[in-house]
Structures are given as structure tokens and as C-alpha cells.
Request: fold
Amino acid sequence: MDTQQSTSPAYFSTKNFCTCLIIAMLTLSGAGLYVMSHYVATSIPYINRIPRNQLGVTFGANEDTFAPNHTATYVTGDHWQDYSILPSNTLPITLNTGWVKQLRHTTMQLTGQQIVLLLSDERYLDVLLNWMVHVVLVSPLTLKNVLIISLDTVTHQILQHKQFHSIYVPRHYFIRPDLPATKFSHLWVIRLIIIRLLNSWNYDVLVFDSDAVLLRNIQPLLTQFAKSDIVSSSGSYPFDVHRKWGVPTLCMGVILIRSSPKIKQFWQTVESVVVATTDDQVRVNKALDKMGIQWQQLNHKKYYRGMTTGLTPLIVTTLPSLVICRHCRESFKDIYYVWHHHAARNGTAKRVNLNRNDIWLLRDDWNKTVKNSLTGTQWIRNITRPHTAM
Reply:
């Protein structure tokens, strides 16, 4: 992994990823209150106030500094804190530097250039484990390349005990603790920040919702679109973008964002786009629309390829519903690569949907095995329903 890191051309410097993270957190959590259209590529006094030894990274003398030109950022203890105006649902933006270091340390333990990313908490832990069962059953995607962002300590401790790669990201770093846990804004903010960080470290990031269940090995299909910077499942939201384009929008339930040289422009546009929500699917599609993406249908199966404007256009491919379904049909199970049937945003609805269609392969008593000595793939096989083909 070290060799791969050192030979791959990085488009972000080490200092840039830290400041880039601040920018991403400010813009993504701002629900449109921050407009980051202009950046200063010189050393800024605000950044100079930050003790560099608190970042846990090495800075080169010739590296550029990127930061918003209107926001004062300071350090208090182990956290970044921003004191500009914030929306009502967020705390002052904080970043535990130890968490960034742990994320970087964990990525160095993974193999290959692609990281498979999921987010979960205790309410959806069984949905996540069911996803893992399918990975072991039908796909050579190794769990060693799966990185799970755990939003609570219970999920994190169980996954670590079973020797899976988990990073604990406390919700209270982003969202006011008095708000209901059913709010999804923090999940969307965290997910985009981490994808961007991993891209900046030269990793391709394949994102799954935990209820987007693999039925077939999707890697050969993704390889067919090796020239695409982004490969995504299809959606219809945001509706205004869908109507404008006349083709499917990108769905964040299954999406591959490659660390290509051109992806930097995409992330800069994601920062600058003004939206009235923290939903990452809205922000990603609005960013591509702002980049002037133009679409064409590749074939009768409704694969679409889009190209942004500019000298180095970004190439985007959306996969049809017969590959990754959103309104799934039992009769097409042998055709689908991923079963991602639309369900309400709660664990019960997702379990009912998966169980109704024989996609739920997790043992009902899986939680009784948490303390046993099995780990990794062995434990996943142990919590798979009997009579399931392995």
C-alpha cells in the first residue's frame, strides 16, 4: 500500500486535505448558508493560527494552502472550531484530529486502490451484517477492503471485536445532541467528507447503502466503465434536476467515485454549489448540473454517459434499473446485480422488504454470537441462515 501511495499522482497535498476537510464540513453542513465560490491559494492568517503539530500530518514547505476567504478558523484543544454563522441544526463545526489520524491509519491497512465504504449505527447493524453475508456468498469483494463508518460505540465495538475495519465518528461532532437521531443530515455530511478524503489519498471509493444488497459480483461490470470517473446507480431525485436532464440522476445508494486527476474539479464544485439541504445526493447532482453535464444514451438498456464541459471533461455513467434496482421485482432477481428496493428510512421497513423477497440471509439469533471467538469471514458464515449456499 505504501508503494501504491507513493507512486500514484496525488492531486491534493497533505496540507490541502486538512484545509479541504474544513471547507467540505463548512459547506456540506451549511445547508446553503456558505457559498465557497472563491478560494485563496496563498497562506492565510487564519490557517497560520492553527498549531500544525495538532494535525498529526507532515507539511511540505512548497505546499499550497486552500481555505475559504471569509471564515476564521481556530483550534480549541483537540478540535477545529468555526465561529461563523451556523444553521440551527449543527454545532460549531468540530473535527477530532485523532479521528482523522485513525482514518488514515486504517486505510493504510487495506489492500488495493479501491475502498468499499458503508455507514451504519446500532439501529441498522443487522442490515449491515446481512449485506456482509451477501458479500461472502456472491462476490469476491473481500471484507478486508470494506471500511465501515460507525456512528455509535456499540456498532464500532462489535465490528472491531470481529476484526472488521471500523472508524467511530461521533454524531455529536456534527449535530446538536437535542435533535432526534432520526435526522439523516449528519450521515450525508459525514459520507461526502469521507469520500472526498479517501479520493484525496488516491483511493477509488465504492459506496453502498447497507440495504443495497449484492446479488452478483459487480466488479466486472464496473471494470467495463474504466474510463468513467463516476459510475452510479440511477435515481429520479432531485426531481428538478431529473426533469431538466430528462435522464436518471445519480443515486448515492451505490456509487463509485474514482480518484482520477479530473475529480478535483468535481469536489470543488460540490463545495461551491448552493443547496437548501444537506442531502448528499442533491449536492452531487446539482454539482454535475453546474458543471454543464450533457448526457447520451449508450444503448437500448438505458445506460447513460454524461460529460461535463471544459478542457478535461468529467465522464459519468449511470447504470440502469435492471442492474441496480430501486423498484425491485422478484422475477428479475437473477438479472439484478444489486437489490436496493425503495423502503422507508427505518430499519424495520428495510428488514421487512429484504425478508419478504428472500434477501434476508442473516440468522435471527446473530446477536447471541457476538461474544464468541469467531472473527471476520468465519463469523459472517456462522451468522448466515442455515441451508444457505456458501
Summary: Confidence is low (pLDDT under 50) at residues 1-15, 25-96.
